[in-house]
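Quick one, T. Sequence first:
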Amino acid sequence: MNATVRYYSRSGNTKAVAEAIAGAAGVEAVSVDAPEASLKGHVDVLFIGGALYAYGIDAHLRSYIASLDASLVGKAVVFSTSWVSKHAIALIKDALEERGVSVAPETLYFRGRPSGSQLADAEKLVRKLL
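C-alpha coordinates:
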Protein backbone atom coordinates (compact mmCIF):
# COMPACT_ATOMS: atom_id res chain seq x y z
CA MET A 1 0.00 0.00 0.00
CA ASN A 2 1.20 3.48 -0.74
CA ALA A 3 0.30 6.47 1.39
CA THR A 4 0.65 10.21 1.43
CA VAL A 5 0.20 12.81 4.17
CA ARG A 6 -1.34 16.24 3.70
CA TYR A 7 -2.17 18.75 6.42
CA TYR A 8 -2.68 22.40 7.27
CA SER A 9 -1.32 23.77 10.54
CA ARG A 10 -1.09 27.27 11.97
CA SER A 11 0.38 26.50 15.39
CA GLY A 12 2.49 23.47 14.53
CA ASN A 13 0.38 20.98 16.52
CA THR A 14 -1.22 19.37 13.47
CA LYS A 15 2.13 19.47 11.68
CA ALA A 16 3.66 17.43 14.52
CA VAL A 17 1.00 14.75 14.07
CA ALA A 18 1.43 14.83 10.28
CA GLU A 19 5.17 14.32 10.63
CA ALA A 20 4.67 11.36 13.01
CA ILE A 21 2.22 9.79 10.57
CA ALA A 22 4.56 10.42 7.64
CA GLY A 23 7.51 8.93 9.51
CA ALA A 24 5.58 5.74 10.21
CA ALA A 25 4.43 5.56 6.58
CA GLY A 26 7.89 6.29 5.18
CA VAL A 27 6.78 9.40 3.29
CA GLU A 28 7.02 13.17 3.68
CA ALA A 29 4.27 15.26 5.26
CA VAL A 30 3.32 18.12 2.94
CA SER A 31 1.29 21.20 3.82
CA VAL A 32 -1.73 21.64 1.56
CA ASP A 33 -0.58 25.14 0.66
CA ALA A 34 2.77 23.87 -0.71
CA PRO A 35 3.18 23.65 -4.50
CA GLU A 36 3.96 19.92 -4.27
CA ALA A 37 0.76 19.11 -2.35
CA SER A 38 -1.32 18.03 -5.35
CA LEU A 39 -1.52 14.29 -5.89
CA LYS A 40 0.52 13.09 -8.87
CA GLY A 41 -1.03 9.64 -9.01
CA HIS A 42 -3.19 7.18 -7.14
CA VAL A 43 -2.63 6.73 -3.39
CA ASP A 44 -4.11 3.89 -1.40
CA VAL A 45 -4.31 5.96 1.80
CA LEU A 46 -4.42 9.75 2.10
CA PHE A 47 -3.80 10.87 5.67
CA ILE A 48 -5.27 14.36 5.82
CA GLY A 49 -5.55 16.72 8.75
CA GLY A 50 -6.26 20.17 10.00
CA ALA A 51 -7.66 21.98 12.98
CA LEU A 52 -10.71 23.93 13.93
CA TYR A 53 -10.37 27.69 13.39
CA ALA A 54 -13.35 29.87 14.33
CA TYR A 55 -15.63 26.81 14.16
CA GLY A 56 -14.54 25.82 10.65
CA ILE A 57 -11.55 24.38 8.84
CA ASP A 58 -9.00 26.72 7.33
CA ALA A 59 -9.63 27.97 3.78
CA HIS A 60 -6.35 26.39 2.59
CA LEU A 61 -7.52 22.94 3.65
CA ARG A 62 -11.05 23.51 2.36
CA SER A 63 -9.64 24.56 -1.03
CA TYR A 64 -7.29 21.59 -1.17
CA ILE A 65 -10.10 19.14 -0.48
CA ALA A 66 -12.26 20.84 -3.12
CA SER A 67 -9.48 20.26 -5.66
CA LEU A 68 -9.04 16.55 -4.92
CA ASP A 69 -9.73 14.00 -7.65
CA ALA A 70 -11.54 11.23 -5.79
CA SER A 71 -10.38 8.65 -8.33
CA LEU A 72 -6.80 9.17 -7.08
CA VAL A 73 -7.61 8.28 -3.45
CA GLY A 74 -8.34 4.77 -2.22
CA LYS A 75 -9.41 6.02 1.21
CA ALA A 76 -8.75 8.99 3.45
CA VAL A 77 -7.85 8.91 7.13
CA VAL A 78 -8.62 12.15 8.96
CA PHE A 79 -6.63 13.63 11.84
CA SER A 80 -6.90 16.85 13.83
CA THR A 81 -5.64 18.85 16.76
CA SER A 82 -7.49 21.64 18.46
CA TRP A 83 -7.80 23.39 21.78
CA VAL A 84 -11.56 23.73 21.38
CA SER A 85 -13.18 20.54 20.07
CA LYS A 86 -12.76 17.68 17.63
CA HIS A 87 -15.43 19.07 15.30
CA ALA A 88 -12.80 19.54 12.56
CA ILE A 89 -12.83 15.75 12.09
CA ALA A 90 -16.50 15.83 11.03
CA LEU A 91 -15.99 18.89 8.83
CA ILE A 92 -13.03 17.34 7.01
CA LYS A 93 -14.84 14.01 6.62
CA ASP A 94 -17.93 15.72 5.23
CA ALA A 95 -15.90 17.76 2.74
CA LEU A 96 -14.06 14.64 1.56
CA GLU A 97 -17.25 12.64 1.20
CA GLU A 98 -18.84 15.49 -0.78
CA ARG A 99 -15.92 15.09 -3.23
CA GLY A 100 -16.62 11.36 -3.46
CA VAL A 101 -13.58 10.33 -1.40
CA SER A 102 -14.04 7.22 0.73
CA VAL A 103 -13.25 8.02 4.38
CA ALA A 104 -12.00 5.42 6.85
CA PRO A 105 -13.80 5.15 10.19
CA GLU A 106 -10.47 5.44 12.04
CA THR A 107 -9.49 8.99 13.00
CA LEU A 108 -6.93 10.71 15.20
CA TYR A 109 -7.68 13.68 17.43
CA PHE A 110 -5.41 15.31 19.98
CA ARG A 111 -6.36 18.24 22.19
CA GLY A 112 -3.63 20.87 21.97
CA ARG A 113 0.01 19.92 21.51
CA PRO A 114 0.34 16.15 21.15
CA SER A 115 2.53 14.34 23.67
CA GLY A 116 5.17 11.78 22.78
CA SER A 117 2.85 8.92 23.70
CA GLN A 118 0.08 10.39 21.55
CA LEU A 119 2.46 10.65 18.58
CA ALA A 120 3.39 7.00 19.20
CA ASP A 121 -0.35 6.16 19.06
CA ALA A 122 -0.54 7.93 15.69
CA GLU A 123 2.37 5.81 14.42
CA LYS A 124 0.64 2.63 15.65
CA LEU A 125 -2.54 3.51 13.75
CA VAL A 126 -0.54 4.07 10.57
CA ARG A 127 1.13 0.67 10.87
CA LYS A 128 -2.29 -0.93 11.48
CA LEU A 129 -3.79 0.71 8.39
CA LEU A 130 -0.88 0.06 6.08
